[in-house]
Amino acid sequence: MNLPLFSALFAAFALTLYVLLDGFDLGVGTLLLAQRDARSRDLMVDAIAPTWDGNETWLVMAGIALFAGFPIAYGILLPAVYLPLIVMLLALAVRGVTFEFRVQSTNFKPAWDVAFGIASLVAALAQGTMAGTLILGVHVEAGQFAGSVLDALSPLALATGCALLAGYVMLGAGWLRVKESGELRTFAGRALHSSNLALLALLALVCVSAAAVQPEIRLRLADRWIGLSLLAILTLGSAAAAWRSVSGNSDLRPFAFAALQCALVAMGAWLVVYPDVVPFRLSLWDAASAQASHMFLLAGAAVFAPIIIAYSAFAYRVFRGKTSAEGYE
Amino acid sequence: MTLDPALLARIQFAFTVSFHIIFPTVSIGLIAFLVVVEGLWLKTKNPLYLEIYRFWLNIFALAFGVGVVTGIVLSFEFGLAFAKFGQIAGPVIGPLIGWEVLSAFFLEAGFLGIVLFGMQRVGPKLHYFATCMVFVGTQLSATWILAANSWMQTPAGAVLEGGRFVVQRWVDVIVNPSWPVRLPHMLTAAYLTGAFIVAGTGAWYLLRGRHVDFARKTVSLGVGFATVLIAVQVFLGDIVYGTMIQHQPAKMQAAEGFWEEQSESPAPYYWIIVPDQADQKNRFTIGTPYLGSIWLTHSLDGRVQGLKNTPRDQQPFMAMAFYGFRVMYVTAILMFALCFASLWLRWKRRLFTTRWFLRALVLMTPSGVIATLGGWYLAETGRQPWVIYGVLRTADAISPVPAAVLLSSLLAFICVYGLFMTAFLIFALRIVRRGPGETAVPTVPGSPRPPAGLAAFGYTRETDPAATATP
After folding, report:
1. Which of A74, A324, B45, B439 could share a disulfide with B470, CB 3.0–4.6 Å?
2. Mutation test of the interface with chain A: which of B13, B57, B64, B72, choosing the one with the most A Cβ atoms within 10 A?
3. What ipTM does the predicted assembly reach?
């Protein structure tokens, strides 16, 4: 059995789910910065407060799956993205504690809201920067990261950061469309439109520049052009559907199409990178642990992942419907 | 002075892990208390229990939040600052933490939202189930992380092949020699921490004559649990001590503060030492004669083994291990004394009125946190110079990251975590000052809307069908 491949698929599944789920949390957080009305900001945070923690756990799952299944890659990739990763961890930490702190704060609540927004924005930027750094290729010698930690701050990596931020804002706007009514719903529709335009423009910029800078990406594009162009067409189709559905009646559709759009972009990225776990340097089989580690991890995933998805879905069901001015009473 | 990346990597890990462990210790202890209290409420329908539950859930939520976000940092730090450790030990540690994420983190996160915001939506029974699931999650989390850390203390079930570990039997990895004794020791430490925080807060109210019913109940419950737990802990601690002497003799040699291969007879028990690692001797000691022989060898003239039994290049730094141990041990003695006094006062029916006792309880509020930190300093510094005992040296495990970068990230952690601790203490103390049963003031000026989150828990005695049903 090709266990490393299954571990890689599980890690990719966890990371994609993270991008979609915490993506909308971070997007809603970022949108707090564009919302002047304090009561509306409360409603926006209420839309994500009961479930954000479970969403964020998928990031830990993806990181630990990499650690367990591909420790060689883990030891190369993390030092390579040291700076944006530290920034992301600190930003996620500030965002996480702010959920609790802003409720307790009496005099400084607007300041906590700003901290919440900036932390969400910075976390999104940092995550995209990491993705950009990795897809451009890191410098490896003798199984160790051998580049400079400043490599992670290249303009193209930062542009990828902006693209991911735009994607998260789009998801966040889609989620607010699901959870809010009245003026906030209109606000979310506008945000979805502008972030989707920004996302498409930045994606085009990143794809073209990455292909220009990294010859390995050109090889993969030439090799897998059928699949990748199919994904590109579907992505544009979802973008158009997300755009149009904002003027429709359904509150779920804009979010569903936005999520589909982001999932397709993620699949495109996976298709370019496959079968490498350190892009263009180390394949997943070269970086893999021995069979016993994959077996144990995958057994846990097989048993627990369905249960996790079931009770997470239950939690979403408990808090379904529009947020109300009464809070969760 | 040039910066040493190995030292900075260690300081960064030590700082972030020390900060982190405070919060899970508190939240494991508090959630255990909350499970008991909500269970008592469901059973007796006494609204006082619901009031206690709601009050402590507020503080639990704050501690849990800080614990979660600082824990995520740790799960990436194995690779950030200790990349070579990650590469070598990932096949063992990774799947263990993978099971922690799968069985514990998701469970806590999935049900926490319902615990905090869902009472009105799911009703008391399902809400209690959610509280229990968060409790189960915290216990499983401790179980797996202790398995991983204990494996680093007493590795088993895996062999090094071609620069990384290959697991042969997972049962041996998990049930390594120190895990079965260290897990109950740590869980009991967390429960004790919770019990003293609860009792100390109740005592503070009693001293001020506020919320007297609430305070009496929490002092009684907190001190009662603490009394049982400290007795269990003394017993468990002794077993851990015996296991560690057998498997990590260097750690316990350092912890007792003796250098010579055989100490003088009778051996004193040291309370304060100024060790000189370079000269392999103590410059200054304060101890109690005979007590070392009696406690450590169970005889009047037994000799204690010193650190020179361990080759110099494998010795831990004595001062850290010794003082980590003393902080834990002295705190435990104070806890024991206070719990012993509580039995007498309870029998005399003066538990709630003896002011010196209540003052001592207030002072001992953070005692569990202090003892736990001391114990972890012993466990981790006493393992040095190894990161995986006897197999991989800490200095050989670090990342190829420049010292200046490590220093910057360390300073960033200190600033951000400092802010967290300040905010946590301000908010927790504000909740305590406000007292149970009081709702928070609306946080948006001019808004009648109560704030989201726990203050909006909304399960008041008036609206509680279970409470109004009681005669």
Report:
1. B45
2. B72
3. 0.90
d(CA B217, CA B55): 13
Contact B69 A74 (CB under 8 A): no
Instruction: Name the least confident of A263-277, B80-94, B292-306, B436-450.
Output: B436-450
Tell me the C-alpha distance between B218 and B367, whole Å: 17
Nearest to A293 among B66, B94, B118 (CB): B94
Q: How buried is B407 (Cβ within 10 angstroms: 0-12 exposed, 13-18 middle, 19+ buried)?
A: middle
- Tokens standing for A295? 């077996």
Q: A2 phi and psi, to 5 degrees? A: -90, 70
Q: CA-nearest residue of chain B to A66? A: B94
Q: Give how far the C-alpha of residue A231 lies from the chain's centroid of Cα atoms, to the nearest Å.
A: 18
Return d(Cα B113, Cα B444) in angstroms, integer. 23
Q: Is A90 on the interface with B (CB under 8 A)?
A: yes
Amino acid identity for residue B133 in this structure: M
Distance of CA B178 to the CA centre of its chain: 17
Q: Report residue A170: phi and psi, to 5°.
A: -60, -45
Nearest CB to A99; choose among B65, B87, B443: B65
H-run or E-run covering B11 = helix B5-44
Q: What is the pLDDT of residues B186-207, one digit of tens each?
A: 999 999 999 999 999 999 999 9
**Residue B444 within any structural domain of the chain:** no
CA–CA min distance A54, chain B (Å)? 5
Is A93 within 8 Å of B69 when comparing Cβ atoms?
yes
Domain boundary among B286, B305, B324: B305
Q: CB-based contact (8 Å) between A50 and chain B?
A: yes
Cα dihedral value B239, B240, B244, B247, nearest 10 = 70
Q: Compute the distance between CA of residue B49 and CA of residue B34 in angstroms, rounded to an integer.
A: 10
Inform me whether the C-beta atom of residue A89 falls under 8 Å from chain B C-beta atoms. yes
Q: pLDDT, tens digit, for every residue of A297-327?
A: 999 999 999 999 999 998 888 888 888 766 6
The answer for residues whose C-beta is within 8 angstroms of residue B270's C-beta and 6 or more apart is B256, B257, B258, B282, B285, B286, B287, B292, B322
Q: By C-alpha distance, which of B84, B50, B59, B336 is closest to B201?
A: B59
CB contact under 8 A, B112 and A53: yes
Q: How many CB atoms lie within 10 A of CB A299?
A: 14
Question: How many whole angstroms separate alpha carbon A234 and alpha carbon A262?
Answer: 11
Q: How big is chain B by its Cα radius of gyration, in Å?
A: 24
* Minimum distance, in Å, between the CA of residue A66 and any CA atom of chain B: 8
Residues B320 and B369 in one domain: yes
- Chain B nearest-CA residue for A310: B110
pLDDT digits (tens, 9 = 90+) for A192-220: 999 999 999 999 999 999 999 889 999 99
Cβ within 8 Å, pair B80-A79: yes
**Residue A81 in 3-state DSSP?**
coil
Number of independent structural domains in chain B: 2
Peptide bond into B124 cis (omega under 30): no
Find the CB nearest A51 among B113, B399, B451: B113
Do A219 and A154 contact (CB within 8 A), yes or no? no
Q: B287 lies in which domain range?
A: 258-305
The answer to whether A37 contacts chain B (CB < 8 Å) is: no
Q: Which residue of A94, A103, A108 is the best one to mutate when testing the B interface, meaning the one whose CB has the most B CBs within 10 A?
A: A103
Burial (CB < 10 A; 0-12, 13-18, 19+), residue A66, is: buried
Q: Give alpha helix (H) positions in A214-321.
A: 215-223, 225-245, 253-273, 291-318
A 203-232 residues inside an 8 A Cβ radius of B: none
Residue B198 covered by a domain: yes
Which fold is adopted by the domain A3-291? Formate dehydrogenase/DMSO reductase fold (1.20.1630)
SS3 A108: coil
Asked whether residue B194 is domain-assigned, the answer is: yes
